[in-house]
Amino acid sequence: MSATESTILLLVLWWAVLLFQLPVIRLIASKSTGSMSFDPNGSDLEGYGRRLTRAAANCSESIPMFIIVMLVAIVTDNSDITNATATWLLFARVAQSVAHLISVSTPLVMARFFFFLVQVGLALCWIVQMLMA
Description:
By secondary structure, the protein is an all-alpha fold. It has helices at 3-33, 47-75, 79-83, 86-102, 106-132. It is 82% helix and 0% strand.
């Protein structure tokens, strides 16, 4: 399996790990509030639950774009372009989510932004290289 293919699967796995925690957090919260209603942006939760909701939503907003770029590379036989740095995209995505889960302090928000820029930068570089191939 190529680095690009592994990265796609591991991105989906990471996303699933975050999503799997959401119902658990919601069940715990419903026991303390007595309500099963919820705000999809997590504003009805405190601390980790709120950060987890936003981290999972953030993955839903950006991971599909990165997966599509890597799938295009595979389908067009350009995965040699993505293989060299696909793992870096995965590391940056996990680092961004972990920073999100830890805190919303200014330094960690800036770290999240840096890790997001790494991901977008890699995807843009891949796109340009594929268009020029």
